[in-house]
Design a protein that fits this description.
alpha+beta; 4-stranded antiparallel β-sheet; two-stranded parallel ribbon; globular; 12 helices
Length: 349
């Protein structure tokens, strides 16, 4: 979910936030965007068959989201009319509509993937829209501290100092924050980058750390999900063709998840080699070159992570731990084909 209500409350006072908004319409720019798996009663809203869509929720009252709001899917029949009515905007909304279509192309709304996708299509948006949530920052803190400990020590050795633990903690906090400030100056000098290039590089660096941290939890979850898929009991009336479809899709899913994992690991290995060259061999040039090339790797890596994260999260939502692994034939075909279509798209990318 992309909570533009919270982003507006947290960063709306910043000049750059209002100077480069995600959406020009103020009502839309304080909405909720949700990547939503379509249910059976949602599918009829679309002219084409699709497993997922982007839901836009316009709250009735920003200060109390519990009151609900008006909602619609990007791409459903008549959605642009619903958008203009909800946003009280009878005039042209071409740019905002185009931005929503771009967002709808993505498999997830993670901030790094979203930023690079928008930039590639000429959308320069304020950094506040891509900040990590406070919960993610807290959970990433210790992971990033371990990842960066050697580099932090080297940065301070470059300055002729020893990095106290407190300085190291502040530098990690600075790296994870939305702004790049003087706290990261020792690292900038180590990498020999100008301020603007360093700012862009830090965002890319943070993105790779974000994916590495996400995957530390995701791999074990995927292994469990893959095993549960093989044990799922299918109920309901079915013929030989339907049973064969379920069996074949189960096998293809297991193979597809393995293939996606290998591709993701290959992408992260490029980062690891560049980072190790800097920390173990003192070669900032390789890491600097990596940071400059990193945005080109984001879309492929982010899309693949988004696909496998969707499989793990939706499966656990549908089958919480401890509940029976039982589903009707029609539902399980729907779920497995959704997963399979996402993996197939990733494998063909």
């Amino acid at each position: 979910m992309l909570n533009l209500v919270a982003i507006e409350a947290h960063s709306g006072h910043r000049p750059e936030h209002s100077a480069a908004p995600l959406f020009r319409n103020r009502i839309l720019n304080a909405a909720l965007l949700v990547k939503h798996r379509l249910r059976a009663d949602d599918i009829f809203l679309f002219n084409e068959v699709r497993p997922n869509a982007t839901k836009v929720i316009i709250p009735f009252e920003r200060s109390d989201l519990g009151l609900g709001g008006q909602s619609f899917f990007v791409g459903q029949r008549g959605w642009t009319t619903l958008l203009r009515e909800a946003c009280n905007e009878p005039t042209d909304m071409a740019r905002d509509i185009a931005t929503l279509r771009l967002i709808d192309q993505l498999p997830s709304l993670d901030p790094f993937l979203l930023r690079e996708h928008l930039l590639r299509h000429g959308r320069s948006v304020a950094p506040s829209y891509f900040a990590l949530s406070e919960a993610d920052m807290r959970q990433m803190q210790s992971f990033v501290s371990v990842q960066l400990s050697h580099l932090i020590q080297q940065a301070y050795r470059h300055a002729g100092e020893v990095a106290p633990a407190a300085h190291a903690a502040r530098l990690v906090e600075a790296l994870l924050s939305a702004d790049v400030d003087g706290r990261l100056e020792p690292l900038r000098k180590t990498l020999g980058m100008d301020s603007e290039s360093f700012k862009e590089g830090v965002f890319s660096w943070k993105g790779f750390l974000y994916y590495k941290w996400t995957l530390t939890r995701l791999w074990s979850e995927l292994e469990t999900v893959g095993e549960e898929i093989t044990r799922l009991k299918v109920t309901g009336s079915r013929d030989e063709a339907a049973q064969s479809l379920v069996d074949d899709t189960r096998k293809r899913l297991r193979q597809g998840i393995i293939a996606e994992r290998k591709a993701i690991v290959r992408g992260l290995d490029i980062y690891d080699r560049a980072f190790d060259g800097l920390t173990d061999n003192g070669r900032p040039q390789a890491f600097r070159e990596f940071l400059q090339r990193a945005p080109d790797m984001f879309l492929s890596l982010g899309e693949r992570v988004g696909v496998v994260a969707h499989i793990a999260s939706f499966w656990r939502y549908r089958f919480p731990l401890g509940t029976p692994l039982v589903a009707d034939i029609d539902e399980i075909i729907d779920i497995l084909q959704d997963f399979d279509s996402g993996l197939s798209a990733g494998l063909n990318a």
